[in-house]
Q: What sequence folds into this?
């Protein structure tokens, strides 16, 4: 099928990543994928959550927050001032789980890494952009912290990135924009690491059920896109003096 922006089915939108976008956090990234822009800031706090402390659990922790700014969408979205909406709470858990899969937590110092993902502009794929950009911001923050301690980043697992995949008019497409996502017959969010291991799949048939073969096709296309995103992550981090194994 012909996509609105002329992309091929397997082609992701233009990706731009600006590291160090905000001065104050230990790690900061503005990631733009097409019209979607997400600001990812990482704060590293001394100490671990109470539940870890009470269990004398070794290592540190990684958690995430997610929010959409009021005019990140075409109509104003009310600010989340008291508690996150169900969608935001679900997405922040996804981002946290995904980023924890990139770190050997037991080898991490006793710190808590808070990854704040704020959507500046939404055009589909905000949660997957949060995972991809959040990973870079997290590594930047840990590198800065460990460099100050004179310690290596020997707790890193393979890099992690995420992409959306959808089925529309009989075609399987990667990196859906808002218009494609709102009309898709089925869509999923795929999180994988550089080894090709699946960390999480969120998938739903919006109209008609889809077959296992369709899922296999979606994963294959998604994996190809994720490999491209991980190569971008590596390049951005290398520019900051961080070479991933």
A:
């Amino acid at each position: 099928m012909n996509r609105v922006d002329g992309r091929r089915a397997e082609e992701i939108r233009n990706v731009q990543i600006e590291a160090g976008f905000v001065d104050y956090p230990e790690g900061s990234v503005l990631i733009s994928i097409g019209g979607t822009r997400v600001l990812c800031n990482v704060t590293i706090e001394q100490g671990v959550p109470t539940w870890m402390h009470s269990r004398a659990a070794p290592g540190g922790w990684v958690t995430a927050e997610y929010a959409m700014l009021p005019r990140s969408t075409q109509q104003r979205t009310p600010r989340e001032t008291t508690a996150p909406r169900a969608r935001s709470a679900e997405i922040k858990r996804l981002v946290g789980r995904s980023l924890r899969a990139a770190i050997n937590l037991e080898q991490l110092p006793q710190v808590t890494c808070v990854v704040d993902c704020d959507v500046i502009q939404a055009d589909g794929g905000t949660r997957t952009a949060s995972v991809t950009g959040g990973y870079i911001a997290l590594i930047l923050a840990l590198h800065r912290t460990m460099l100050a301690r004179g310690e290596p980043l020997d707790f890193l697992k393979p890099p992690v990135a995420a992409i959306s995949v959808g089925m529309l008019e009989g075609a399987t497409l990667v990196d859906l924009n808002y218009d494609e996502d709102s009309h898709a017959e089925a869509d999923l969010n795929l999180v994988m690491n550089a080894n090709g291991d699946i960390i999480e799949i969120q998938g739903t048939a919006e109209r008609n059920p889809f077959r296992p073969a369709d899922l296999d096709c979606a994963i294959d296309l998604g994996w190809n896109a994720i490999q491209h995103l991980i190569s971008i992550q590596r390049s951005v981090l290398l520019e900051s003096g961080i070479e991933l194994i």
User: Anything to note?
Assistant: The chain has five helices and nine strands. The chain has one domain: 15-239.
